[in-house]
From TrEMBL:
It holds the Pfam family PHO4. It is a multi-pass membrane protein. It comes from the Bacteria. It comes from Roseibium aestuarii. Its main location: membrane. This is Phosphate transporter. It is found in: Membrane. Belongs to the inorganic phosphate transporter (PiT) (TC 2.A.20) family. The keyword Transport applies.
Length: 497
């Protein structure tokens, strides 16, 4: 048989096989961008149908395409913060997380998304400075393009950034290019800059505090299951109350306006009801469980999945305006020929934002979900539970204090807070040290644990490279979006005249 062996033919066949595999792999990589491109083109077509025979048809169509592109990028980047910890802790699979978040995001945007948005993005720019319709549409278009491009770049490098900050930077840059530095409300910008520090710190401190409570009250107890029966319902009740308050303040603004005292009462009632319901549930779930940490994680999985869905709903209700706010402003100006301080969002424009965020999550979300859930620090259901609880509580505290905060910064800050707290607690906790010594049969030690420098470095539980990348991306989001927007405005304004 060997006499029929043709080495040249085998090489050619191998080359064809490799080319086939490479082509198949490339084809798979192009599926998601292809679907995304189809989506933005359909959005442009829909806009054309709604503005057929109108003088501003082409402007609205282009704006719809850009708004859809922005929504895709928000879904790819921002939504990871809601479901990343749950996926990283293995409370649910990537596919389950994508489906739950996509449905919850769309529901939040369409059912509770704000139907009126401020076109000057929370008072960043003086409306009188951009009163000319052509100038205004060019500024909004530049802001939309610049923020979308920046979020796309951040997603590519693996950095979760604030889409709110990106759009604010875009509006500021276009406003400066259109009317100079005097047009900017620098007091408002100062508050936004302060949120760069406030949001992650608050999120990290609150998450670390609850992780400390879980460790002290449940994890490092001789009878973990008995401690879990007592305290896990309390933690779930706190989370339920926090999310009820959060949704009352931020998630249902379109349906009903609720002030802080009423929201807190709703949260308190929800917490009490949750405590009454979850006590027997946790007691039933804990029967037969072994007295070890792995058993405790099972008790946190269901509330963690629910929290991911609620975070996604609230995110859809609040952040859809980042994608469609400037688009709604352009649609209004093109249709009515005037610049309004506030405009209503048409249903088709809201649908562009809602479905765009969901498509972006499904097509491009796994990269950032893995980053937030797995690559910053190791999460389990208890740690991820603390992250989700921190996200809700931080928004409530910030709202009560009147502080502007970023949900992205809060969630990622909470992940960092959990990781850095674990580093400190592992190295310094006498309670943990004595527990581990007793478990290994060595008896408790009355002194604090001693570690050499090499061991402490080896046991770092937060990846410093990701920390540096993410913080750097946060700091430059506003200035980068602003500079890009200013340049785009100077290119666009002649075309709008």
């Amino acid at each position: 048989m060997n006499q029929y062996h043709k080495p040249t033919l085998d090489k050619d066949l191998d080359k064809l096989s490799y080319m086939g595999e490479a082509t198949g792999s490339l084809g798979k990589r192009l599926v998601a961008p292809g679907i995304g491109l189809l989506f933005v083109l359909v959005c442009g077509l829909v806009a054309t149908l709604f503005f057929f025979d109108s003088p501003g048809t082409y402007i609205v169509a282009v704006a719809a395409v850009i708004g859809a592109y922005m929504a895709l990028n928000i879904g790819a980047n921002d939504v990871a913060n809601n479901v990343g910890p749950a996926v990283g802790s293995r409370a649910m699979s990537m596919l389950t997380a994508l489906l739950i978040a996509a449905v919850a995001e769309s529901a939040g945007a369409l059912l509770a998304g704000g139907d009126v948005v401020g076109t000057i993005s929370k008072g960043i720019i003086d409306p009188a400075a951009v009163a000319n319709p052509a100038v205004f549409m060019a500024a909004m278009m530049a802001a939309l393009i610049s923020s979308a491009l920046w979020i796309n770049l951040a997603t590519w490098i693996g950095a979760p950034v604030s889409t709110t900050h990106a759009i604010v930077g875009g509006v500021m840059g276009a406003g400066i290019a259109a009317a100079g530095f005097a047009a900017v409300s620098w007091g408002t910008m100062g508050q936004i800059a302060a949120s760069w520090v406030i949001s992650p710190l608050m999120g990290g401190v609150i998450a670390a505090f609850f992780l400390y409570l879980i460790k002290v009250l449940v994890v490092y107890r001789d009878d973990k299951i008995a401690a879990a029966r007592r305290w896990v319902p309390v933690f779930i009740a706190v989370m339920t109350g926090a999310f009820a308050t959060y949704l009352a303040l931020k998630g249902v603004k379109k349906l009903v306006e609720i002030d802080m005292p009423m929201a807190l009462l709703i949260g308190l009632g929800s917490a009490i009801a949750s405590l009454l319901i979850t006590r027997p549930y946790v007691a039933r779930q804990s029967r037969g469980l072994e007295n070890k940490n792995q058993s405790l994680r099972k008790l946190f999985k269901v509330p963690l999945v629910v929290s991911a869905a609620l975070l996604s709903f609230a995110h859809g209700a609040n952040d859809v305006a980042n994608a469609v706010g400037p688009l709604a402003a352009i649609v209004h100006t093109a249709g009515f020929g005037d610049v309004a301080s506030k405009v209503e969002i048409p249903l088709w424009v809201m649908a562009v934002g809602a479905f765009g965020i969901s498509f972006g999550l499904l097509l491009f979300g796994p990269k950032l979900i893995n980053m937030v859930g797995q690559q910053i620090t190791k999460l389990n259901p208890m740690r991820a539970f603390c992250v989700a609880l921190s996200a809700a509580l931080t928004v409530i505290v910030a709202s009560a204090l009147g502080l502007p905060v970023s949900s992205t910064h809060i969630a990622v800050g909470a992940v960092f807070g959990v990781g850095f707290f674990r580093e400190w607690y592992t190295a310094n906790s006498l309670r943990r040290f004595n527990y581990v010594m007793a478990k290994n049969g060595r008896g408790p030690k009355p002194t604090r644990p001693q570690r050499n420098r090499e061991e402490m470095f080896r046991r770092k539980l937060v990846r410093r490279a990701h920390f540096s990348t993410i913080v750097a991306a946060w700091v430059i989001t506003v200035p980068a979006s602003a500079l890009l927007s200013a340049g785009l405005y100077l290119l666009l304004v002649p075309l709008m005249g």
